[in-house]
Amino acid sequence: MLTKGQLIHFETFGFLVLRQAFSAAEMKAFTDAAEEIWAVEKGESTGRGENRGSTSVGEFVERQTKLTSLAEDDRIYGVIEQLLGPGFIWAGSEGQRGRISTTWHNDHPGETQKKYTRIKVILYLEPTTKETGALRVISGSHRSPYHDSLELLQEYHMQHNEVSNSREGKTKGHITLPFGVESPDIPCYTFESNPGDVIFFHQNLYHAVYGGLGERRRYIAMKFGAKPTTDEHVRLIKDRTEYVFHPHEAFLNSSRPRIRSMVENLETIGAKV
What we know:
Low-confidence stretches: 45-51, 167-173
Helix content: 25-40%
Distance between the termini: 35 Å
Mean pLDDT: 89
Strand order of the largest sheet: 1-9-6-11-4-3-2
Strand content: 15-25%
Number of strands: 11
Number of helices: 10
Order of helices and strands: HEHEEHHEEEEHHEEEEHHHH
Structural class: alpha+beta
Shape: globular
């Protein structure tokens, strides 16, 4: 159960971290289950740019019973219910392994996207520091007008990705640095963490990862959305994440009340708009 102070912290700054919410034994079980998935699934490799060698597998926790239990655990489900309110929905999961570095961005850019709230939950499977790929966030950047004033970062992110993935030999020198400083030097909060810590952050929050080039950098992520109460909410979800309305069969067929409650009406809701 979150305290009033924790709720205000999330509302104000856009993130929350629960230190050592899960024990070492629990984290070992989650890590073993994740490795079983990675051993079978090739996932999607970035293939080019600075993240070459990184592998991401979607519908991750849905594939393994031990990981599915995370989605209904009080330490995650209960927190999300407090942050998003009753009727919140499941918006998918992923498992990331390998080297990764990403410039400042928010997950759902666009003026209208700010009207719908999504939260991402991350569990890192080994220690992370500022130098080894810890998640960085710009506190309070999920809210306007501060959010709007940082649009240069989103533009830089898109240009940087285009250059990094270019086969024409372009370099970062073609990109104007946002705010006149190197991107890693933007003032921020860094989630230096250990296995067992749980990170919750608003997906409109500007975030980045630098120095995350270790081959063993691994995390499990789960995504949740507020209950869609209007046709506009449904359109906003479809615009970015159409797959939300087509949940994994393991969740649709689950006998667990909490799992079913997050997905059972999604296909019907999505079909109406």
